[in-house]
Amino acid sequence: IIETEEEYGNRLIEKLSRDLTKKYGKGFSGTNIKNMRRFYRVYEKSQPAAELEWGGGFRITADSYRLKVEG
């Protein structure tokens, strides 16, 4: 069976959603992950804060090359 790029991407997002929800709890639906990615793509060239505290004990660190979520 040949899978399209779109099908692969959707499957990958759903797996990521399940894994993050299992590890961190609510807030990581497929839709939320797509919105997080969209947000990153819009603001990736911006000068972000070095570190943001996110509810539930998450810390988001960023520079112009990567976004890292720790919790």
Please give a structural write-up.
The structure is a single chain. The chain has 71 residues and is of the alpha+beta class. The protein has 2 helices and 3 strands. The chain has helices at residues 5-24, 30-43; strands at 51-54, 58-62, 67-70. The protein has a 3-stranded antiparallel beta sheet, with no helix packed on it. A hairpin with a 4-residue loop joins strand 2 (58-62) and strand 3 (67-70). The chain is flat. 0% of the residues are buried. The model has no long low-confidence stretch (mean pLDDT 78).
Structural shape: flat
Continuous helix count: 2
Total count of strands: 3
Average pLDDT taken over every residue: 78
Q: Strand order across the biggest sheet?
A: 1-2-3
Provide the gyration radius in Å. 14 Å
Strand and helix map with partners:
Layout: H1 5-24, H2 30-43, E1 51-54, E2 58-62, E3 67-70
Antiparallel strand pairs: 1-2, 2-3
Tags for this model:
alpha+beta; single chain; 71 residues
A few lines on this structure:
With 71 residues, the protein is α+β, with helices and mostly antiparallel strands.
